[in-house]
Design goal:
mainly beta; twelve-stranded antiparallel β-sheet; 187 residues; signal; globular; 3 helices
Length: 187
C-alpha cells in the first residue's frame, strides 16, 4: 500500500505543476504570428518558438519575415514597415530583456511586438503613434488588441531592466476603426 501511495504522490507531484500552463494554452512548439485587419483578413508576419523553462515559464524566440516589410528611412532611422492604408512599422524593443512569458504574464512578448503607424503621405516618424498589442490567452492561442502607446516612453532605458517598463497607465484605448491592423493572433 505504501508503494502505491508513494507512486501516486510522485505522479501527482510531477503532473500538477504542468497542468496550469497546459490548461492555460501555453505549450512548447512553433506558432505563427498574424496581424489582422478589421474584416478578419490576416497576414502572417513571422513565428515564435516556445520552450519550457525549469521555473514554469516559457522562453521564446521570435523570427519576423523581413521580406514582407519594406525599408523606410523615417526621422533618421531605418524602419521595416508593412504597406497598406497605413504604414505599419515594426519597432524593436531597444533594451535587453529575458524573452519569457507565463500564462498570466505576456508583457515581454507585448514589448517585442511594438509597432508605429503613419499615413503613407505623412512626413517622418511620429513615435507618439505607437501600437501596443495587449495580449491574452484564448482557446485558440494568444490574441491581442491594439492599444495606443507613446513610444517616446522607451527613449531612455528603464530603471529596472528586469521588469517590462510599459504598464497599464502608459497605454490608452486606440481607435480600432481607424487602424489598419487592430488585432494580433499567435497560434
Amino acid at each position: 500500500m505504501k508503494k502505491i501511495t508513494r507512486g501516486l504522490v510522485l505522479f501527482i507531484a510531477l503532473c500538477v505543476p504542468m497542468a496550469p500552463t497546459v490548461a492555460a494554452g501555453l505549450s512548447e512548439g512553433t506558432r505563427q504570428i498574424y496581424l489582422l485587419q478589421k474584416d478578419g483578413t490576416e497576414q502572417s508576419i513571422g513565428e515564435l518558438v516556445f520552450s519550457a523553462t525549469p521555473a514554469g515559464a516559457f522562453s521564446y524566440k521570435m523570427t519576423l519575415d523581413h521580406h514582407l516589410f519594406k525599408d523606410y528611412f523615417l526621422s533618421m532611422k531605418e524602419m521595416k514597415c508593412l504597406e497598406g492604408p497605413e504604414l505599419w512599422c515594426f519597432i524593436p524593443y531597444p533594451y535587453e530583456q529575458p524573452r519569457t512569458v507565463t500564462a498570466d504574464d505576456l508583457r515581454w512578448l507585448e514589448h517585442d511586438l511594438l509597432f508605429m503607424f503613419k499615413k503613407p503621405e505623412a512626413f517622418g516618424a511620429n513615435f507618439w503613434n505607437g501600437i501596443y498589442y495587449k495580449m491574452k490567452l484564448t482557446d485558440e492561442g494568444i490574441r491581442g488588441t491594439a492599444k495606443a502607446l507613446d513610444l517616446n516612453l522607451l527613449a531612455s532605458p528603464p530603471d529596472d531592466l528586469s521588469q517590462p517598463p510599459v504598464g497599464e497607465y502608459d497605454i490608452d484605448t486606440a481607435d480600432l476603426e481607424k487602424r489598419w491592423l487592430p488585432f494580433i493572433e499567435i497560434r
